[in-house]
C-alpha cells in the first residue's frame, strides 16, 4: 500500500514533539466515560482486568484498546478513544495489562511488548461472548507493537477481527530503546524505570528464588531492567533476545488484516526502524501514515478528541 499522506494539522504550540508528548500525557483530561470492570482468568491462572464502556444502544461492534508502557485503562489516550467510539455506536474494552490495574498480578511474569498470548486471550474471551460481529484493535505505543505482532504472527486470527490501528508504534524495539536511552529522552527513561522498579520490588519477597536483592540493585537503566527481569521472566535469553523476538517489524509482511500505523516523524521515542516504509509498500493490508508532527502519542488538535482517535474512527468507517 502506498504511504498515506497525513492530513494532521497541529496547533501552533503543539508542533514541538516534546510539548505534544508531555501535554497529552500529563495535562489532558477526559470526562464522562463510565467504565465497568470485568476480570478474566488467563490460561496460566493469572488475571487481566478489562474496563468496558458501552454505546448508548446495544452494539455488535467492539474496539479493544491497549495501553503503553506502565499505562492503564484510565489513561486519557484510552478513555478519549473509548468515549469517541462509544458515541459512534461501538463498545470499548480497555485492557489493563498484568499488574497495571492497581492490583499486583499473581505470577512472577507480567507484561511486555510482545505478549500476544494475553491479547489472544482477550480476543478469544470477547469472541466467546457471541455478541460482536466486528472487533477492532487499537494499540498505543507498547500496545501498538503488540497489536501488530498479534495479527502478523502465524495464527488464525478470528474472522471478527476487522482491523488494527497502531499509534506511535515502536516496531523496532532495540532501536526504540536506544532512542529512549539517549540524552534527549533521559527524563522519560528515568520516569519509566522508576515506575517499573517500584512495581518489581514486591516480587523480591514473593519470588526470592527468581530474583535477588543484588539483581534488583543492579538495575540502573531500562536495558538493565530488561536483562534482569523482562527477559528472564518471559522466556528470553537476555534483553536483546527479547527486543529481537518481540519486535513487530518482522511480522508486518504477514499481516492480512487491514492495519493503520500512525508514527509521527518528530516522535523522539522512535528510531528509523520504526517507520516501516518498505513493509507498507509491499503489503496491501499495511497502511503507514507519518505526520510531520505529533510527538509520541500526542496528535493534539482542536476539540475534545485528538487526531489519532478521529483518524482511527475514519479508517474503520471506510473499510
Automatic annotation (TrEMBL):
Similarity annotation: Belongs to the AB hydrolase superfamily. AB hydrolase 4 family.
GO molecular function, one term: monoacylglycerol lipase activity
Originating organism: Winogradskyella wandonensis
PANTHER family referenced in this protein's UniProt entry, alphabetically: ABHYDROLASE DOMAIN-CONTAINING PROTEIN, ESTERASE YHET-RELATED
Xref: InterPro entries: AB_hydrolase_4_CS, AB_hydrolase_4_sf, AB_hydrolase_fold, ABHD4, Hydrolase_4
Keyword terms of this UniProt record: Hydrolase, Serine esterase
Active site location: 141 (charge relay system), 267 (charge relay system), 296 (charge relay system)
Serine aminopeptidase S33 domain: residues covered: 59-212
Protein name in the entry: Serine aminopeptidase S33 domain-containing protein
Amino acid at each position: 500500500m502506498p504511504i498515506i499522506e497525513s492530513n494532521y494539522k497541529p496547533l501552533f504550540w503543539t508542533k514541538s514533539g516534546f510539548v505534544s508528548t508531555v501535554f497529552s500525557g500529563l495535562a489532558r483530561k477526559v470526562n464522562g466515560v463510565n467504565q465497568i470492570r470485568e476480570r478474566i482468568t488467563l490460561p496460566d491462572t493469572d488475571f487481566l482486568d478489562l474496563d468496558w464502556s458501552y454505546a448508548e444502544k446495544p452494539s455488535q461492534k467492539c474496539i479493544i484498546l491497549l495501553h503503553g508502557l506502565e499505562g492503564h485503562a484510565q489513561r486519557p489516550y484510552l478513555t478519549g478513544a473509548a468515549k469517541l467510539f462509544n458515541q459512534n455506536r461501538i463498545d470499548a474494552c480497555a485492557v489493563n495489562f498484568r499488574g497495571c490495574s492497581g492490583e499486583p498480578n499473581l505470577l512472577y511474569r507480567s507484561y511486555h511488548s510482545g505478549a500476544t498470548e494475553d491479547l489472544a486471550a482477550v480476543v478469544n474471551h470477547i469472541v466467546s461472548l457471541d455478541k460482536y460481529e466486528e472487533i477492532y484493535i487499537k494499540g498505543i505505543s507498547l500496545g501498538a507493537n503488540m497489536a501488530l505482532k498479534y495479527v502478523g504472527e502465524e495464527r488464525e486470527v478470528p474472522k471478527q477481527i476487522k482491523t488494527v490501528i497502531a499509534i506511535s508504534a515502536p516496531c523496532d524495539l532495540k532501536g526504540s530503546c536506544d532512542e529512549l536511552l539517549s540524552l534527549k529522552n533521559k527524563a522519560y527513561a528515568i520516569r519509566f524505570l522508576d515506575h517499573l522498579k517500584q512495581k518489581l520490588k514486591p516480587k523480591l519477597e514473593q519470588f526470592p528464588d527468581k530474583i535477588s536483592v543484588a539483581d534488583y540493585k543492579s538495575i540502573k537503566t531500562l536495558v538493565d531492567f530488561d536483562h534482569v527481569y523482562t527477559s528472564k521472566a518471559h522466556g528470553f535469553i537476555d534483553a536483546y533476545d527479547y527486543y529481537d523476538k518481540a519486535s513487530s517489524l518482522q511480522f508486518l509482511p504477514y499481516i492480512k488484516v487491514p492495519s493503520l500505523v500512525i508514527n509521527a516523524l518528530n516522535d523522539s521515542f522512535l528510531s528509523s526502524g520504526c517507520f516501516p516504509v518498505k513493509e507498507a509498500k509491499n503489503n496491501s493490508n499495511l497502511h503507514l501514515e507519518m505526520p510531520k508532527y505529533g510527538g509520541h502519542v500526542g496528535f493534539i488538535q482542536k476539540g475534545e478528541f485528538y487526531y489519532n482517535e478521529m483518524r482511527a474512527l475514519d479508517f474503520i468507517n471506510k473499510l
